[in-house]
Every structure is written in C-alpha cells, then in structure tokens.
Amino acid sequence: MTRRRKASIIFACLLCVGSTISAVGQNGLDRNDDARRPENYRSQNFLIHTDLARDDAEALLQKMETMLKIISRYWGAPNRKTIECYVVDNLNYWPAGSLSPNVRATVSQGGITIAQGSRRGNQLNMNAIVYASNSYGTPQHEAVHAYCYQTFGVTGPTWYAEGMAELGNYWVEDDTTVTAPDYVIRHLKRSPRKSLEEITDYRQRTGDGWQNYTWRWALCHFLVNNRNYYDRFRPMGVGFLTGRPSTFARSYASRMKELKFEFEFFVDHLDRGFDIDRCVWNWKARYREQKGTRPVVARIRADKGWQPGGLKVVKGQDYHYTAEGTWRTSKDSEEAFADGGPTGNGKLIGILFNDYELSAPIELGTDGTFTATGDGQLLLRCSDAWNRLSDNKGTISVEFMSAKDD
Fold first, then answer.
1. Ranges of each domain in the chain
2. Which of 61, 246, 302, 322 lies at a CB distance of 3.0 to 4.6 Å from 239, suitable for a disulfide?
3. What are phi and psi of 85, to 5 degrees?
C-alpha cells in the first residue's frame, strides 16, 4: 500500500465482564418495558444513548468527563472529537432494530468499541462508537478505547490497551491509591501469580476474560504510579500509540529484577487504599556493616513502607538497637514509642533483604538485641496495615551496634 493511498481501517475492542444484563434494572425495580426508551444525553466530550434515568445518565457523563480529563492529560493529547456511546442498563427497553443482534449479544456480557476510519500519511480520520452495559465501569473502560482510536488510530498491544482502559475506569482525580473493586483485588491475591512475561505476552487477544484484565490493570497501575519505573512506562506507551517501535522487555531490560520484585510485593500487599508512592523501594540506599564505636543510624517515618535501616547484617551476629522518638498510626491514636501502642500497631519492625528475597519480619521495639537469621540489608518500618499508612505521623531515630564490639 503506497503512502498516498487512503487506507480504510476497522478495529474492535471487546470487554467481557462476565455479567449479564437482566430484565430488571440496576436499581432492582421491575419496570414496565414501555415505560422507558433510550434517550440522548450530551456533555462536552460525549454523546450517550441510554435507557438510564436522567440523573444516572448525567452522573455517568460526569464520571466519563473526569476520566477523559485524566487520561488525555497523561497521554498529552486532548480529545478533539465527540465520543459516541450506547449504554445499556436493560435490553428490554431497547426497541427491536435499535441494536444489531451481535451488539445485543455482546452488550449482554460486557462491551465493545468499534472504530472505523482512514489514515492518509499523518492525517487520521477515525470514528469510534462504544456499546456497553452499565456494569463494572464498562462505559468508562470502552471510552478509553474510543479516545485512543480517535486520537491515535490504535490502542496498543492487548495488555497495554486493556490495562490502561481498566486504569481509566478506576482512576480517581488526585488519588493514586488502589481504587479497584474488591473482586479484582481478591482474584489477584488468591489466584496463581502471573509472570511479567505472561501479562505482557503480545500474542494475547482482547475479550479473553476479566481475570486476565485484572493482571493487566495491576501492572499498568503499578507502572504509572511507581517513580522507579514510570519514567520509562509513559514513553513506552506513547510509542505504542504513535507508531514508534517499543517493547516491554526492551524498555525495562536493565531494571527487570527490581521491577519483578516490586511488582510481586505490590500484588502480595494489594488492598484498597494501598499507596505505591509510600512503598517505593529505595534501590540507591547504602548499607554498611557496623564496626568500631560508630553506630549505624536510621530515621524511619511512620507513613512509609520498608525503609533502609543502613545496616548490613551478618548471619548469626547479634545487634543491639535503641530507638528514640514517637509516632502515631492514625489521626486519633495516641503517640507511641517504638514498642507500639495498646493495639499493637506502631511497633518498630525489621526485615532482611538478600538477593531479591525477604526474610520473615523481625519484631524490634524501643531497645533490645536481635540475632541476624541470615546475611542481608536491614529495612525498617512502623507496623500498620499497608493500606492505612497515609494518616500516620512521626519519625523515629534508631541506632544499631554490633554486640561483639560493645
């Protein structure tokens, strides 16, 4: 095909969420089939045809506008064309012929975005139409696909396209914590772990089950919000959308071990409210063996995850520690020393890192001695639920001395 020739393009992105739209609306009320017919609603960037009640339709438009503002800012490309959506709450309210049989069958299980258009050189003329059930955030998910098609002409490889669409579905303005539904989190924590190679396999196809979508979302959420890796993730994604060759493996070749470790840690501790930025691993921290009379000193914040303790331990060696200062694990809790408060939260704990493996946690406190169970780097934190660190306050200073040098 020559560059001057006009190329027609037809694409489809499918989301099957495993739910079925019943003859009863989402509010659970049995409504007369003749009582409602689809109506049209508009906002700045969207035109939706839906059988939702007006208040629900307008609330959906507001969610979609917020989502679109976030994703267009992230990709650095404003939306320039109205995104048209058919949003179905109850198929019984849609007259015969208003939706094709194939669309009706697809929407009963999830959603699909159909894009048609042409490209002549750098000139893109693409129109995308969303068909979606009003469940599990499917309209927002499919709207991300529609935006990408109309803005870039493509959505990227399946893992990226579906992961970012789910991210757009869950994105909340000015909130980078985990906001995914509980069923997504339960699946990720209970199912066999997928490797990075499996998640980013280019042979995947859209519509292959919500379980695979959860893993794609998890990886995209992690890479968008972890400052150790987002500097490469955004350019890689923009490359997917603008035709600049890029692959996941090549983009992270020099950081793959670190990325794998942190991503697995993220999945293991995943919960609503988990804040990746508070739990980023400090790979540049320095550690040393304690020798002579100079102690190893660390300052540990209550509102962060594992933080460098500065101490490089030797298996079997005893270490004395003393901790000064107080912290608190909620806005309403009392200040506590490093041995913790009445609830047990707020205790100083440690862990050993060695060759991308972590030891069992080590309970510490205000002062005492612990024996290193292996060689490694000592990390410390204030014991609290991983998704409840944001309201913690305070810093504790800890000194370590090797027992043999006392």
1. 1-155, 159-281, 296-405
2. 246
3. -135, 140
Q: Which two tokens stand for residue 146?
A: 């529609």
CATH number of this structure's domain 296-405 = 2.60.120.430
Give pTM, 2 decimals: 0.91
Tell me 392's DSSP state: -
Number of residues assigned to the chain: 406
Q: How far is CA 393 from CA 215, 336, 390, 406, in A?
A: 33, 10, 8, 33
The two tokens of residue 335 are 């200040």
Helix 230-242 to helix 210-225 angle, to the nearest 10 degrees?
Answer: 120
Please determine, looking at this structure, whether the domain spanning 1-155 carries the CATH number 3.40.30.
Answer: yes
Domain 159-281: CATH class, spelled out:
mainly alpha
251: amino acid identity, one letter:
S
